[in-house]
Amino acid sequence: MSLQAPSIDERWLLTREGLERVKKRALRFKAWFKLDRFERAAIDLTIRVVERVRNSTLAQVILRIVDKLRQWLKPSLKERALNIGRPLAEKVSRIAQAWGNRKAKAWANDSNFIFYLGISWLNTSIIYRQPP
């Protein structure tokens, strides 16, 4: 563990507000209970007692726990593809229906089609991408 000064993002995480947001998000996505009870207690006590973490040892402990939570909170490739592909599938479905394709209505709810469009968009070079 290096003794570098925390970045701006990390300094924000070392405040009560930052830790409350991290905890709230971890609870929402069921990552909070993947931590062991001592890690949860460290975050809870820091939220209750400290407005801003100033002790470097405590800061290292808290940042290590937050990094662990960040790894669990990253969306998977499948989730990203589905989130991006859904509006694309709805748009393609509407266009195809406007052209007279009656079966196109089902495309908006077809998870394989949604996934395909999402993966295709993610694999498209940023130079050629348009927002989904």
How would you describe what is shown here?
This protein has 2 domains: 8-73, no CATH class; 77-123, no CATH class. Helix 5 (77-98) packs across helix 6. The protein is elongated. The protein is mainly alpha-helical and 132 residues long. The protein is built from 6 helices and no strands. The chain starts with 7 loop residues before the first helix and ends in a 9-residue tail after the last helix. The chain has helices at 8-13, 16-28, 37-49, 56-73, 77-98, 111-123. The model has no long low-confidence stretch (mean pLDDT 89).
List the helices and strands and how they pair.
Blueprint: H1 8-13, H2 16-28, H3 37-49, H4 56-73, H5 77-98, H6 111-123
Helix pairs in contact: 2-3, 5-6
What is the 3D shape? elongated
What class, by secondary structure content? mainly alpha
Cα-atom Rg, whole angstroms? Answer: 21 Å
Ranges where pLDDT stays below 50 over 5 or more residues in a row are none
- Give a short account of the largest sheet: none
Q: How many H/I helices?
A: 6
Total tally of structural domains: 2
Number of strands: 0
Listing every helix as H and every strand as E from the N terminus to the C terminus, the arrangement reads HHHHHH
Percentage beta strand = under 5%
What is the terminal separation in angstroms? 41 Å
